[in-house]
Design brief:
The protein is α+β, with helices and mostly antiparallel strands. The protein contains four helices and three strands.
Amino acid sequence: MRVWSVQDAKARFSEFLDACVTDGPQVVTRRGTETAVLVPIHECRRLQAAARPSLKQLLLADTARTDMLVPERGKARRRPGLAPRLPR
């Protein structure tokens, strides 16, 4: 991976983008600290697909994943303006 400063990446963005497409991920630094990475779109999609389980994997998993479905007690928030109406 090639390392680019923010100034170089901004000044030579077309070259920066071409290097990403041909050579792979490119690192951007700000004040000498690695800050971001530009990756080709196919690599980004591959990483997203690998990180997200499929429905089949969720259904066949040994453990339930209900912890993400139901908020903790007392943590649920109502939307403003949607107070329950009383029957007339």
